[in-house]
Each structure stands twice: as structure tokens, then as C-alpha cells.
């Protein structure tokens, strides 16, 4: 009798912890596989030897062009390079019919957030890895997880449901922009990013 | 021994669960995600994702017609920028122009005709059919006792020609325009010449010295990109900006010299300078030979010896003499006046006094000063010349100029209690609240529009604004409306489509073989003579290009009258003076992107329309409490305002901005005339710059 109250209170407490830390994240995110696998390492490693900017280009005005278009892939993959299934799918379903690959973009920001890559990489002298991590050396693409409520990628919040970053490049929310700008003594108003 | 769970046990379990949840990310993450979810509701319009394409067009938000590069996704613009190296706009677009594509989605956008249920303050705006509107308006035109007037607020377009032709077919029709405030000095100059069919422009680029009596040269005047470029190039060009103004405006703050004066004495100071130039420096030049009344003028100027007017103007005679000497020794100069977008022009006499300085200095018809260009204006009746209480039916083509138009200015021309007012406009605004019918027209970038020469341009120009957005159902072109009215009235009047009319204009320019064409896409200019056909010329204009005429080569030496009318010296200032001011495009009758209004409101980049600026000493003298709301009173009525102290404002003056509006759109109270412009007294000469006023704190 003496311990019943504590037991009931403790059980509620424990169940909430399990729900909040384990069941909630599992329910919150929906997994959507990428349409095709992609090995960054083959392209950027010793074999490919390419720099990030060779595919993730900027236009004449310095504006970042985002995910490369299929025409860029077709420069090398107009015909299959090797015999892998992925290569076959790439050529048959995308490069030959000139069909864009519907990639899920891990770092897609809301429409009301304006992020100029050029001013960060040129004026701010930031490296791609500072925000995107060692993505360029990954051998496969992670499963894209989309938040069922907000509709944004899990990478925007960060892998850890607590929001605590284990790596400096984890999370792409506004507080990270603000913190980074503050560290660099940048004084920007709302309109700098929300145009 | 068995024990059933009690309510208390359940509460303990719930308490533990609630506490446990607080130690998980669940509540905080749900809050965050829910907030983001609200930004993505199904009804929130969303831009498509996809490849970014660009289109070129020209801005029609004001007469400047700046070149625009539209960045589009799925064919719709999401961002507008300027066009590099454009010879007129110099790669710049003003803040309002940058958000021009937002206006199609403005909350006060009208896409169906509306009618006011009456003229009282309680009248409601009710949706109405276009057919019924046209029938009733046509009947009113048919039975009009007074005149039927079309007021064109953006003259010299191909649509303007239609308006003029329509009114000419009516027995009692008048085609009228409100002159652009920016060219008020030029219009005063034109009136001083014996020859009337001339058109003048400012050659700002080559001038050495610009003396402005209150014109907001560095705050959106003319083509903002050009003025910014000239200002930035001062170190190399040695151009000098001098601002003569009672308040330290943004232009005064940036100018090389600000000469603070008392309000309303601009004309006296112009005549002070004229006195020094002619009677002390003994300036004589070729231009002076054209003055028919130079002896009388010099005689009248003796009333304007700087020492005699020092008390009235607040300027030491030495300052006047130094300025006159600088002007006399400058190779070229431009002196211009007035034109505050909220405060309007000075009176005619003041403008003539300022304009006369250009004639005395030989600035007219000279490169680097005021040049003549070929007159291609559609002849119109100036609004002030229409007799008071004479209009039965007024159709206002309210295409925005960015300048304030007080309703009192319009109302004084209407036959009291027996008039119909129709506005053709895309948004509900302060003017439309006074009208009977509102016919919704297309807005910026929704239809092909021609851009004639901006007021004050030294050369003729022409461009076409290409549509970037689909035309909403329910909207109608202003000329199509006229066509339908003409049809109901059984008039023999056929109207070509906008494209056909613009093509006709393009053919007419092409036949001159003059000037050059600047292409937006490659930034290159080529002579018009090198373009093979008129169709090619039209296609290139449509793809984004500006035609720029050659500069007139002849010098303008003609006979003119200086007419130094005696300008009354203001009586000693023992009352508070209300002076409205504004920023082009953000005045009460203009629509502004709500995003911009919000930014202005939160950042205080611009004062809001319900905030008055007063000198701290004036606030103390009037025993006002800045922290409390106040009531501003004039003969026209009263309105609640907030007081803000500012050392840039002279004593005994209340500066009131007429925009941007606090919430980016007129509220019901605003539509019921509680606005800055309605507080101003419109004088018989059509000016409203200065009004006697009182202000007191609001008692609870």
C-alpha cells in the first residue's frame, strides 16, 4: 500500500519516457526511399576525383543550382558505366528518356527562407561540409525521413529527436543560422533570409 | 487481498505520465512542428518547385518603367530584380518594385465589380454585375447635365489615346489628367514660354549642380536607379546636391548641403536668389534675351532683397548670396521644386519662381540642364482647369502614379449631390471608398502594357511590360470597359486591342529610324536603323528592351515671361502647421505589398500613417505627452494619432506621413476618411501642402 502510489506515479512517468523518446519519433517520421541509390564516394574519391562544385554548380550570377539535373548525369552516364542494377535503372529510366530524377532533398528549406549559397561559400568562405557534413564521402543515400506534421525532412531538425546536435552540421533550423551569424558578428534583419 | 484502482490512483498515474512527458522531446517538438504545419495549410498558396527560368519585363508601378528581370518557377514570378547596365534604371528597382509581383495577391484585390449602396458613412460595398454597372454608367453618361470626364492618372499610354477619342465623341466629354508632381517645375517653365507645344526634361547625368526645393531626389524621385547612381558617382563627377527644405528629409540628410528653411517660403527664397543673380552678380546670358519682361521682373525683385525677407525665410542673406554665386559659376545646374509624393506640388507662383531661376541661369535648352524633347504627349485638360462643380460623370482610370491624390481635390469638381464616380482599378483604396462603382482592372504584370516616356526624362523612351501572371477572371481592361460603354450608347467607336495599339505605336517609332534599342537579355544597345523590320522591333521590345530616342540637338532659345508675381510672405507662425509627406508608392491611394508594410511597421524604416513627427520643443510647448495617444484637429475634422518627437522637424510644425498604411491595407476607419490627406485643406490652386492644425492628448 505504501508503495502503490509511487509505483503508479513511476509507471506513468516511465511509460511517458518510452512514448516520448522512442514511440513518438517512430510515429512522427515517415520513411521514403530515394528513387535511385547514389554513391557520392565513387564520384568524389580517388576513382572519380570530382569536387562537389563540379556537379553542384552555380550559374553565371553565382546562384547555386541545387541538385544536378539529369543532363549533367548524362554527360558521363549516357550509356551504362558498369553492370550494376542502379546503373541500369539510371540509364534506362532517367538519362535515356531525359527524365529528371525526383530526388528527396534532405536540406530542403521552406519557401519563405532564402538561402544564398554563393554568399556563404564566397564571402563567408564556408566549406560545403560545415553544413552538409561528410555527405560527399557517403557510399549510399540514407532513407529520406519526412516529418508527418511539418512536411520537412528529418535532417532539418536533426537526427536526434532531442534536437541536441552530436555533429556540428546536424540540424538546419533558423536557430542554427542565427547562432552562426552571431558567432561571425553578422547583424542581419528578418529580410536578409525571409524575402 | 484485492484492491481496485481508485480515481486517486488514476490521477497519480496521469501525474506521473504528465511529468514524464515533460522530460521527453514530445511536447516541445509537437509545438514546433504544429507551428510549421500552420505555415503549410492547404489554403496557403504555394509556389511550385522546379527549374528556375527568367523572363524580362518592365515595371508599371510608376511612370519610371524600370527594367525588370523576373525569376520564375513553373512560369510564375517569385522574385524580381533589376536589369544590369540598363541605361535608365541602371540595374536597380525600388523596394516597391521588388515586391510588385505580390500585388496580384493583395488582400484588397478586386476581381468583381462593386457598387456602394449609398454615399453615407454607413454605405456598404456590394458586389455587382459588370453588365448592370455598364448599363447604369452609360445611362448616367447619356443623361448627364454637366460634363463627362475621364481622369487619366497615367497619361500618354496608348490607352490614353482611346480615352481621349471617347471623350471627343461625347458632346460634353473632357479628357483630363492630373499632372505628375515630379514635373511641376517643368510644367511651370512650359507655361512661361510663348510657344506652348514643348516638352522638357532634366539632364541630371551631365549637370554639375542640382538645387532642389524639397524634391525627394534621393528617396525615389524619377528613376530611382539613376538618382542613386548619380549620387554614388559624386566623387568622380563632382556633382553637387543641395537641398532646400524645412525638414531634414532623407534627401536633406544625404545631400552635400541642406539649407533648412521655414515651411512655405520656397518661392521667396527662389526670388531672393534671382535678386542676387540679376541685381548683384549682374548675370547676363543668352537666355535672358528671351525674357520679354526682364525690366519689370528686376523691379519686382527689389521686394526680395535677402535682408528684407530674412525673418520670414529663416535664412541668413550670406547663405543666399553664396548659393547664388555657386549657381552663377557652375557650368550647368538644375533647379527644381516641390513634388513630395504625399504633400504634392507647391503653388503655381512658387513653381514659376523656381522655374524662372533656370531661365535666368541659361539652364533651359542646354546639355547638362533642362533639355527639350519631342512632344509626344496626348493633349489633355489639366485637372485644375476644369470648373468647380461641373462634372456629372467622372471615370477615374486609377492606374497608380505613386503620388497622393486627396479626395477633396476630386470632389470640388463634381456637381454636388448629382454625380456618378466610377473607378477603374485593381484594388480597393482610399479613393475608391468615395466612388459609386468600382470596376476591377488587371494589375501589374497581368496584361501587356506600354510604357511611355517618364515625366522629366531628357529623351523620349518606349518599352513594353510583358505579362508575367495570368489575368484573373472577372477583371477587365480599362479600354474594354470604355468599348462596352460606347456600345451601350450606340456610339460609332471601335477600339483596337492593346496589342494592336501598341504595335501601331511601335510602327510609328520604327518609321523614325531614330535612337537605339537596349536589350535586357544581353545588355547591348543597337541603332534602331539596324533592326530589319518593325515586327522584329516589336518582338524585341516584347522580349525585354527599351527604345531610347536621340537627344534633341537644337538649343531652346524662345521668348518667355518671367512674371515675378508678388509672393505673399507668411504671417508670423503662431499656430501649428500640418505638413503631409510621403514616399512614392506608399501614399494612401497606392497599394503596397503587405509583406513590405509589415516590414516597415516592425522595423520603423518608414513612419506609419497614423504617427506624427514633432519637434521636442513643440511637444513641450503644447504640453503634450508623447506616450499617450493624441487627437489631430483641422478644419476638415479630427483623427487619432501617435506622437513621435524628432529633432529633424522645425518648431511649430506637425509632419504627418500619408503612408505606408499601418496594416498595409485601408481599414474601415480609413475608408471612412480618417486619414492624413483628408485632414489637409485643399486650396483653390489645388495644393494641400500646409494646413493650420491643433493637437491634444486624448482624454480617456
Walk me through this protein's architecture.
The complex is a heterodimer of chains A (195) and B (700). Chain A is 40% helix and 4% strand. Chain A has 9 helices and 2 strands; from the N terminus they run H-E-H-H-H-H-H-H-E-H-H. Chain A has a two-stranded antiparallel sheet with strand order 1-2. With 700 residues, chain B is α/β, with parallel strands linked by helices. Helix content of chain B is 29%, strand content 20%. Chain B is built from 21 helices and 28 strands. Chain B has an 8-stranded mixed β-sheet. A 6-stranded mixed beta barrel of chain B has the order 23-27-24-26-25-28. In chain B, strands 18-19-22-20-21 form a 5-stranded antiparallel β-sheet. Chain B is globular, with a radius of gyration of 28 Å. The mean pLDDT of chain B is 88. The chains are: A mainly alpha (195), B alpha/beta (700). Chains A and B meet through helix 1 of A and helix 1, helix 2 and helix 19 of B.
How would you sum up this structure in a few lines?
The complex is a heterodimer of chains A (195) and B (700). With 195 residues, chain A is mostly helical. Chain A has helices at 4-28, 40-44, 52-55, 70-77, 85-95, 117-123, 129-132, 154-157, 174-183; strands at residues 29-32, 144-147.
Strand order of the largest sheet of chain A: 1-2
Total E-strand runs of chain A: 2
Largest sheet of chain A: 2 strands, antiparallel
Shape of chain A: globular
Uncertain runs of chain A are: none
Rg of chain B, Å, rounded? 28 Å
Binned, the helix content of chain B reads: 25-40%
Largest interface: A-B, 35 and 33 residues
The residue ranges of chain B in which pLDDT falls below 50 over 5 or more consecutive positions are none
Mean pLDDT of chain B equals: 88
Helix content estimate of chain A: 40-55%
> Helix/strand/pairing class of chain A, anyone?
mainly alpha
Quaternary assembly: heterodimer
Structural class of chain B: alpha/beta
Strand content of chain B: 15-25%
Per DSSP, the total helix count of chain A is 9
Order of helices and strands of chain A: HEHHHHHHEHH
Largest sheet of chain B: 8 strands, mixed
**Share in β-strands of chain A:** under 5%
The strand line-up of the biggest sheet of chain B is: 5-4-17-16-15-6-7-14
End-to-end distance of chain B:
71 Å
Amino acid at each position: 500500500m505504501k508503495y502503490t502510489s509511487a509505483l503508479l506515479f513511476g509507471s506513468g512517468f516511465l511509460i511517458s519516457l518510452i512514448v516520448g523518446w522512442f514511440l513518438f519519433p517512430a510515429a512522427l517520421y515517415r520513411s521514403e526511399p530515394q528513387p535511385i541509390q547514389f554513391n557520392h564516394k565513387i564520384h568524389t574519391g580517388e576513382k572519380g576525383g570530382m569536387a562537389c562544385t563540379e556537379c553542384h554548380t552555380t550559374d553565371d550570377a553565382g546562384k547555386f543550382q541545387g541538385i544536378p539535373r539529369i543532363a549533367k548525369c548524362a554527360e558521363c552516364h549516357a550509356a551504362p558505366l558498369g553492370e550494376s542494377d542502379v546503373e541500369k535503372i539510371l540509364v534506362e529510366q532517367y538519362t535515356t528518356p531525359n527524365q529528371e530524377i525526383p530526388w528527396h532533398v534532405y536540406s530542403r528549406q521552406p519557401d519563405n527562407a532564402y538561402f544564398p549559397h554563393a554568399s556563404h561559400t564566397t564571402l563567408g568562405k564556408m566549406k560545403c561540409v560545415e553544413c552538409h557534413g561528410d555527405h560527399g564521402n557517403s557510399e549510399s543515400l540514407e532513407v529520406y525521413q519526412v516529418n508527418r506534421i511539418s512536411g520537412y525532412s528529418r535532417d532539418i531538425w536533426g537526427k536526434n529527436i532531442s534536437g541536441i546536435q552530436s555533429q556540428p552540421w546536424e540540424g538546419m533550423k533558423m536557430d542554427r543560422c542565427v547562432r552562426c551569424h552571431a558567432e561571425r558578428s553578422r547583424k542581419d534583419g528578418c529580410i536578409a533570409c525571409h524575402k | 487481498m484485492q484492491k481496485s484502482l481508485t480515481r486517486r490512483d488514476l490521477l497519480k498515474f496521469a501525474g506521473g505520465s504528465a511529468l514524464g512527458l515533460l522530460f521527453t522531446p514530445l511536447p516541445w517538438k509537437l509545438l514546433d512542428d504544429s507551428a510549421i504545419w500552420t505555415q503549410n495549410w492547404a489554403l496557403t498558396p504555394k509556389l511550385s518547385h522546379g527549374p528556375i527560368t527568367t523572363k524580362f519585363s518592365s515595371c508599371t508601378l510608376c511612370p519610371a518603367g524600370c527594367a525588370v528581370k523576373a525569376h520564375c518557377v513553373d512560369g510564375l514570378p517569385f522574385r524580381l530584380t533589376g536589369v544590369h547596365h540598363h541605361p535608365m534604371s541602371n540595374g536597380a528597382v525600388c523596394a516597391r518594385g521588388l515586391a510588385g509581383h505580390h500585388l496580384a495577391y493583395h488582400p484588397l484585390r478586386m476581381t468583381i465589380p462593386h457598387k456602394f449602396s449609398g454615399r453615407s458613412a454607413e454605405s456598404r460595398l456590394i458586389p455587382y454585375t459588370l453588365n448592370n454597372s455598364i448599363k447604369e454608367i452609360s445611362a448616367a453618361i447619356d443623361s448627364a447635365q454637366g460634363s463627362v470626364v475621364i481622369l487619366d492618372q497615367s497619361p500618354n499610354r496608348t490607352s490614353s489615346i482611346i480615352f481621349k477619342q471617347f471623350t471627343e465623341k461625347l458632346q460634353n466629354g473632357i479628357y483630363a489628367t492630373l499632372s505628375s508632381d515630379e514635373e511641376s517645375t517643368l510644367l511651370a517653365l512650359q507655361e512661361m514660354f510663348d510657344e506652348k507645344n514643348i516638352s522638357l526634361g532634366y539632364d541630371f547625368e551631365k549637370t554639375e549642380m542640382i538645387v532642389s526645393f524639397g524634391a525627394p531626389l534621393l528617396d525615389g524621385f524619377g528613376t530611382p536607379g539613376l538618382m542613386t547612381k548619380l549620387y554614388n558617382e559624386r566623387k568622380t563627377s563632382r556633382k553637387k546636391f543641395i537641398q532646400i527644405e524645412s525638414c531634414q528629409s532623407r534627401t536633406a540628410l544625404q545631400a552635400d548641403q541642406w539649407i533648412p528653411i521655414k515651411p512655405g517660403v520656397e518661392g521667396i527664397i527662389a526670388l531672393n536668389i534671382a535678386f542676387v543673380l540679376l541685381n548683384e552678380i549682374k548675370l547676363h546670358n543668352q537666355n535672358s534675351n528671351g525674357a520679354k519682361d526682364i525690366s519689370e521682373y528686376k523691379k519686382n525683385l527689389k521686394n526680395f532683397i535677402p535682408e528684407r525677407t530674412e525673418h520670414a525665410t529663416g535664412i541668413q542673406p550670406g547663405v543666399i548670396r553664396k548659393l547664388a554665386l555657386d549657381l552663377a559659376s557652375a557650368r550647368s545646374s538644375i533647379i527644381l521644386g516641390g513634388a513630395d509624393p504625399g504633400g504634392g506640388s507647391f503653388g503655381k507662383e512658387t513653381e514659376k519662381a523656381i522655374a524662372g531661376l533656370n531661365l535666368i541661369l541659361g539652364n533651359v535648352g542646354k546639355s547638362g540642364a533642362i533639355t527639350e524633347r519631342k512632344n509626344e504627349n496626348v493633349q489633355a485638360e489639366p485637372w485644375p482647369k476644369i470648373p468647380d462643380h461641373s462634372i456629372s460623370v467622372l471615370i477615374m482610370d486609377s492606374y497608380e502614379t505613386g503620388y497622393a491624390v486627396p479626395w477633396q481635390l476630386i470632389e470640388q469638381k463634381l456637381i454636388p449631390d448629382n454625380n456618378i464616380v466610377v473607378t477603374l482599378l485593381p484594388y480597393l483604396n482610399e479613393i475608391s471608398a468615395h466612388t459609386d462603382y468600382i470596376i476591377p482592372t488587371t494589375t501589374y504584370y497581368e496584361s501587356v502594357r506600354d510604357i511611355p516616356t517618364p515625366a522629366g526624362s531628357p529623351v523620349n523612351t518606349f518599352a513594353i511590360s510583358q505579362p508575367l501572371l495570368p489575368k484573373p477572371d472577372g477583371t477587365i481592361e480599362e479600354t474594354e470597359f470604355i468599348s462596352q460603354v460606347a456600345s451601350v450608347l450606340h456610339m460609332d467607336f471601335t477600339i483596337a486591342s492593346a496589342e494592336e495599339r501598341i504595335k501601331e505605336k511601335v510602327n510609328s517609332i520604327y518609321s523614325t529610324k531614330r535612337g537605339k534599342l537596349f536589350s535586357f537579355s544581353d545588355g547591348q544597345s543597337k541603332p534602331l536603323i539596324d533592326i530589319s523590320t518593325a515586327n522584329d522591333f516589336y518582338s524585341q521590345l516584347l522580349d525585354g528592351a527599351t527604345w531610347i530616342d536621340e537627344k534633341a540637338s537644337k538649343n531652346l532659345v524662345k521668348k518667355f515671361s518671367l512674371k515675378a508675381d508678388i509672393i505673399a510672405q507668411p504671417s508670423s507662425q503662431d499656430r501649428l502647421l500640418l505638413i503631409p509627406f510621403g514616399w512614392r508608392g506608399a501614399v494612401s491611394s497606392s497599394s503596397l505589398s503587405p509583406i513590405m508594410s509589415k516590414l516597415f511597421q516592425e522595423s520603423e524604416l518608414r513612419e506609419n500613417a497614423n504617427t506624427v513627427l514633432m519637434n521636442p520643443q513643440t511637444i513641450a510647448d503644447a504640453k503634450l505627452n508623447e506616450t499617450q495617444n493624441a487627437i489631430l484637429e483641422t478644419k476638415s475634422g479630427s483623427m487619432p494619432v501617435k506622437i513621435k518627437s524628432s529633432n529633424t522637424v522645425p518648431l511649430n510644425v506637425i509632419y504627418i506621413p500619408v503612408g505606408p498604411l499601418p496594416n498595409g491595407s485601408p481599414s474601415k476607419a480609413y475608408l471612412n476618411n480618417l486619414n492624413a490627406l483628408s485632414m489637409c485643406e485643399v486650396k483653390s490652386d489645388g495644393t494641400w501642402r500646409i494646413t493650420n492644425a491643433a493637437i491634444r492628448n486624448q482624454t480617456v
